[in-house]
Amino acid sequence: MSPFCHCHVYQMCLPFTFRAKTTDTMGIMRKAWVYKRKNTKGWWVGWYEGGKKRAKALPGKVLAKHFCQIKDAPLNSDVFTGAVNADWHQMVEGYRQAKQVEGLRGASIHEAMLALGHFERLVGPDSSKRINQNVLDRFILDRGNEVTRTTLNKDIRNLNAFLNWAVKNRFIASGLEVKKIKVAQKPVRALTPQQVRGLLSTVSKYPPLRLKVLLAVTTGLRRGDIEAIRIGDIHFDRNPITPHNRQAGKAMSERPIPEQIMTELSNHVTKLPDGQERLFNDRFSPKKWEKIRKTIGLPELKFHDLRKTFASLLAQRGVSTAVPQRLLEHSSPQLTNEVYTNVDPVLRQAISQLPVADRLYDSSPGCAEDRGLFSVPHDLAPCRRQMWPAPDVVPSKGRFDWAERDGVQRNRALS
User: Fold this and answer.
1) Is residue 380 part of a domain?
2) Which domain holds residue 31?
3) Pairing between strand 255-256 and 240-241?
4) Half-sphere exposure of 396 (CA within 13 A, CB side)
5) Who has the most CB within 10 Å: 106, 130, 151, 215?
6) Exposure of 177 by Cβ count < 10 A (0-12 exposed, 13-18 middle, 19+ buried)?
7) How many other C-beta atoms lie within 10 A of the C-beta of residue 207?
8) What is the spatial distance between Cα 20 and Cα 216, in angstroms, rounded to a whole number?
9) Which among 231, 242, 225 is positioned nearest to 265, based on CA atoms?
10) At what angle do helices 149-168 and 106-122 cross, to 10 degrees?
């Protein structure tokens, strides 16, 4: 005990004078707040991070409050170290609003909500603590009895996205995973050049549809993206086109267009009425397409198969997979090869280049026994005669007598 500063040592220096931090209350709570600026549209969310004030603008107050709740979890990561129990419906609503903040389209959000609805119907979790690996596995088994494996994989993809969001916001523990089901690879349905010419000849009576088919085969665009093309997206001086992805709601990279197709586009634009911004003003007719595909003898042809035809024709001409992957805007070359590329003509072309006729058939008079599909090639036949004895030659004294073998062959030739 110090005789000089007993009071100060007792109150300030000893470690037990400080309150110990627990795993649930480490550090100081940091919160985000919602406010509105003068003469400025929208609402703002403010918070302190790294000793600096941050802010983010949002269009509405509801989205601002939701973003504020989302921001509280990462700001207090040292305070809340465990999972927080939350109501299931509250989690689903929070996930939907989070996707709206990210800018996802209504169709993508609707598909995600359908997957979560099936999860609630089959498993019925009432809170985040009910979600564990056994519950996820049971959902996969029950849902797999209702739909195909392809549809099941879509639900699994949406469910994994929801789980990642829940882990990030500390609603569930990390480590939960749902793997996709293996699906048997289906043959890619793509048209041959002759079938493409037949299709163009059949749709020639419908000029707008013919131009849509030309764009699909030469650019690989989806039908929705083709119908969303505006005249301002076409650069007639440089022959590219800058379409917009209707699913993602963003502009795509420039796509080069052949000069012949650009001429078709120019002729089509000159016939449009003044003031029209869209390249196509008509809607796709399923009945008309049904009639066309029956006429050309392809009753199961879909318009999306023209996109696969584009990738297949590039592959058949030896173009690298990286080119159609970039033009189709795929995330991986595996998706381009397995789903969108028909490599059967490429394989047949590669096999046809083998010198089958030159190496598997021998026309020399002394090698009649070597003829056939599985015979030894002509340049290897002498090696076979030296390595293998004749069938009717019997080895003498435990080993093969080469002189005796040669004598038997000479007798055959003389006879």
Assistant:
1) yes
2) 13-81
3) antiparallel
4) 6
5) 215
6) exposed
7) 13
8) 67
9) 231
10) 90
Amino acid at the residue 1? M
Residue type for 336, please?
T
Q: 244-245 and 250-251: which strand pairing? A: antiparallel
Residue 251, classed as helix, strand or coil, is strand
**How many degrees, rounded to 5, is the angle at CA 101 between CA 97 and CA 106?**
70
Cα gap 231→229, rounded to integer Å: 7
The pair of structure tokens assigned to 103 is 């800018």
Q: What is the pLDDT of residues 13-43, one digit of tens each?
A: 434 333 434 434 444 667 889 999 888 888 9
Residue labelled with tokens 């009945």: 287
Provide the angle, in degrees to the nearest 10, between the axes of the packed helices 344-352 and 305-316. 20
**DSSP annotation of 103:** T
Q: What is the distance between the alpha carbons of residues 329 and 220, in angstroms, rounded to a whole number? A: 10
* Interatomic CA distance for residues 346 and 315, integer angstroms: 7
Contact 328, 220 (CB under 8 A): yes
Task: Give the pLDDT band of residue 404 (cuts 50, 70, 90).
Answer: low
CA 142, 143, 148, 153 torsion-angle sign:
negative
pLDDT at residue number 29: 62
Q: Which ranges in 103-148 belong to alpha helices (H)?
A: 106-122, 133-144
Radius of gyration of the chain (CA): 36
- Count of domains forming the chain: 4
Task: Please state the length of the chain.
Answer: 415
CATH number, position 209: 1.10.443.10
- What pLDDT was estimated at residue 47? 86
| One domain, residues 75 and 96 | no
What is the model's pLDDT at position 141?
A: 92
Phi then psi dihedrals of residue 230, to 5 deg: -105, 160
Q: Closest Cα partner for 221 from 186, 191, 256, 189? A: 256
Burial of 342 (0-12, 13-18, 19+ CB in 10 A): buried
Note the pLDDT tens digit of each residue in 307-363. Answer: 888 888 888 888 888 888 788 777 777 777 766 666 666 666 666 666 655 555 555
Asked whether residue 307 falls in the same domain as residue 384, the answer is: no
Residue 28: predicted pLDDT: 62
Please report, to the nearest 10 degrees, the dihedral formed by the alpha carbons of residues 342, 346, 348, 352 taken in order: 170
Q: Would you say residue 21 lies in a domain?
A: yes
